[in-house]
Amino acid sequence: MTRRPYRDRPILATLLGWLAFTVHDASDEIVARNEDYFPGFLARDTTVADFRDRRPMLYRAVAPFLHDSHEDVREAAAIAALLLAEHPALTGHRAHLAVHARRILDTSTNDPNRRVAWRALEAWGHHPPGPEPLSEEGQDRGPHSDGRSDLEPPF
After folding, report:
1. How far is the C-alpha of 144 from the C-alpha of 22, rounded, in Å?
2. Helix or strand or coil: residue 10?
3. Nearest-CA neighbor of 73 among 81, 57, 147?
């Protein structure tokens, strides 16, 4: 539970957030957008296709942290799990994850995380409360945007 010096946040939460950001980049929405500009982006045997195929394995690694004692770790794990649950093999976990999504909407002050939770609930037919949280920047910067470069590792 070592803390990052400039955020007073456990490294585990930071790593889970980094995973969520990576999963977001491999989500159906982003892949479809990239496929428009880069045909073959999701072709068989590409890094993105391989990563997307591994989402059930990644979910199994993230799921234990949904009940962590530290709120930052729980929220980061929930965001990663919500994004991973887009995979068809993980649809059976969505009802359980909806509880975590609602908790994020009720308690989080992080708008990108709230937007991920809201969109997951909407996509799964759970009728999220209120309007979709908006980004102050006017664009979606990913699930854990904290001002760092998208390519900068979290350590």
Report:
1. 10
2. strand
3. 81
Token pair in block for residue 84: 């991973």
Contact at 8 Å (CB) between 20 and 30?
A: no
Signed CA dihedral, 87, 88, 93, 97: sign only = positive
Are the beta carbons of 85 and 23 closer than 8 angstroms? no
Please provide residue 9's backbone torsions phi and psi, each rounded to the nearest 5 degrees. -135, 140
**pLDDT (tens digit, 0 to 9) for every residue of the chain, 155 residues total?**
555 554 678 899 999 999 999 999 888 888 888 888 888 767 777 888 888 999 999 999 999 999 999 999 999 999 999 999 999 999 999 999 999 999 999 999 999 999 999 999 999 999 888 777 775 444 444 554 455 544 555 55
Pairwise CA distance, residues 76 & 44, whole Å: 30
Q: What's the token pair of residue 103?
A: 């908790």
Q: Which of 145, 152, 1 is nearest to 72 (CA)?
A: 1
Q: CA 22, CA 27: separation in Å to the nearest integer?
A: 9
